[in-house]
Design goal:
Helix content is about 5%, strand content about 15%. With about 425 residues, the chain is mainly β. It has a domain at about 285-420: Alpha-Beta Horseshoe (Leucine-rich repeat, LRR (right-handed beta-alpha superhelix)). The protein starts with 7 loop residues before the first helix and ends in a 5-residue tail after the last strand. Residues about 5-25 have low confidence and may be disordered. This is LRRNT domain-containing protein. It comes from Mauremys mutica. Keywords: Leucine-rich repeat, Repeat, Signal.
Amino acid sequence: MQILHTTAVIMIPVLFPLLFGYVLSLPDCPQKCLCTPSLMDCRRASLYEIPHGIAQKTETLILNDNHLTLISPEVFQHLLNLTFLGLANNKLSLQNDSFDNIGKSILSLDLSGNNFTDLPSNLFRNTKKLVWLNLAENRLGLLDSTIFSSLEKLTYLDLSNNRLKMLAPMFVGLSQLDTLMLAGNHLPTIPQGVFDPIPNLKILVLSHNEISHLPEGLFDNLKSLNDLLLDYNNFTEISHAIFTTLHNLEHFSMSKNRIQNIPPLLFAGRFTLRKLDLSSNLLSELPSDFPSGLEQLEVLNLSANCIGNVPKNLFINNTKLEFLHLDKTCLKTPPIFSGLHNLIELTVCCNSIKVLPKTFTDNMANLELLDLSMNNIREIENDAFKMNHNITKVILTGNPVCTTEQFMHYSFKGLDCSSKN
């Protein structure tokens, strides 16, 4: 499965001249390329070699989606101002000196989608100013432990969708790294201490691997971590050890695993957590203290777990919750909640609810969207939404009530039984 990459921020300088119509017909601009005094965009230009005569003042050079195979260092030697180089989706073979001539200026380098199986050990030895590096969508299986050691200013590293089966201690020297993408590899576990050299990490994505266990203390040095994504792995349990030192964690996702229970007090003290996704696991019940300790929680997804029953006061302390997803949770009666005064969206799709009581939304004064599609709702009690003045849409697609006379005469106009929402 392919993983999306966070490239929008780094591409802003690339798109800026194009968005404002600042495209010139420079005399030396290669055919099928777009050129400005500081940019040459030759993506999808059917190139088999890097064009000669690139303007000396070029800062952004995009050569993505061509047929390039070799890079001669000399072709870049006059580009003293080059800060962004895009070489994605070619068929490149690299040498240790491929980027030596732009090492003093290059800040961002996109090498994704080139089918690399390995990289020269000294490839980045002279690109010490690099802050953004994309190596995703290759076939890298093992990287030299010192390959990134000279990149002391690197903040973003994407190794997603490769063939990594183990992580060598390759992050030594990357003390400024704040985003590390490792999704879509074949990692069965993560070695103890491998993340210790990157204490400023804020985003760690380990989704779509084969991880079933994480060693205790793995994240002890990641005290600045905000986002931890462990979706689509082979976990059967969540260990307390994961959270011991993650005092700044805001987004935690462990969906699409095989977790059977949530240990008591697992999230105790996780006051910073704002987004939690435990959907598509094997949960059958929730501990009595869950999620009472998550007072800053704004988004909670428990869908595709056969929980069956949601106590009324379960979310009484989660007053900041705005989005709650309980689709496919084996509910037979609609949950009546307390404390969810700020809830904006509630989805309870694909359950076995038969009757919608008039008190259902009384404690959700700010609710705007309610999805009850694909249940077995045959009756909506009168004035079910009378106390809620903000709700604009109630999706009832796939419920028997949609074909009843009651639905035709119901006073609330936000009911939607259409097949397309």
